[in-house]
Structure formats: C-alpha cells, structure tokens
Amino acid sequence: MRPLKLRNKKQQLLNSHLAMEHVLTRLIEQQLEHDRVINLDRWSFMQKLDLAFALGLFENEIYILAKEINRLRNKMAHEFGFQLDVSHLQKLREKAPEHLLKQPEGNRFSDILGVTIFWLEGARQRDLFQQIMAIRAKENVKTALARFQALNSKRLQNDTEE
Known about the structure:
With 162 residues, this protein is mainly α. The protein has helices at 9-31, 45-54, 60-78, 86-95, 98-101, 109-161.
C-alpha cells in the first residue's frame, strides 16, 4: 500500500476512503461461501462497514474511526464548498484510539487515515489466516482419523489371525 503523501487533504480523504472500501469488500467476500451471489459493488460504504462490524471482523475502535472518516467524506462529496479544517482533524482525533495519538506522528491527518486502513487490512489478514488454519486443522483431523482407522484395522486383523 502506498503512503498517503498527498499534500491535498481532500485527496488524502478520498483515497483513504476508497482504500478502506476496497479492504472492507475483500474482508466481507472472505466470509461468503458464494461471493458472486452478492454484488457488494452496489452496497454503500456504511452498509459494508456495518456488516463487517456486525460479523465481529474488527474492533469497535476501527468501526468508530471508519464511521467518522465516512462522515467527513460524505460531507466533502455532498456539501458544496466544503473545506476540511482544524475542527475536522480534531473530531478525527477524538475518535482515534489514545495509543495512536501518543505516537509522534499520530496527530497528523494522513497518519490517522493511514492507520485506519492498516487496521482494516490487518483484520482482513487475521481473518484469512484463521480460515487457513481452520482448513489445516480439518486436514490434520482427517489424517489422524485415517491413521487411527488403519491402526484399528491392523489390530482387528491381528486379533482375528490369533
């Protein structure tokens, strides 16, 4: 993922929102057995965010911050002449978790946006890892059962020969 090195805060907000939506879409698709049945492209950002949160795919901190970013993006997109100012950054800071704000760069607009994207991507990767581990666990159980059955068959065969 490229860093948000854009000087224009509106462009940072738009790019971040698009990146977050992309990650949310992939995260939800990972949950679906038949992901082609539901066309997530027709869902709003908020619908995707609500669904992913309702499924327990990430923490409340991410949800609250992503909602605020979405609110800002909607204001920018739908209010003619909207200007991002210090009050908007302050509102984002209020929604951001404290540990982020303790970082030296954690108070910058682009950092708060970037961290939110990385949190969502981290949630997506954790979920994918858990799915892979569940598949491996099932394979291990099948292998163990097959070995157990083979061993039992040998024991039964030895018992009948005696």
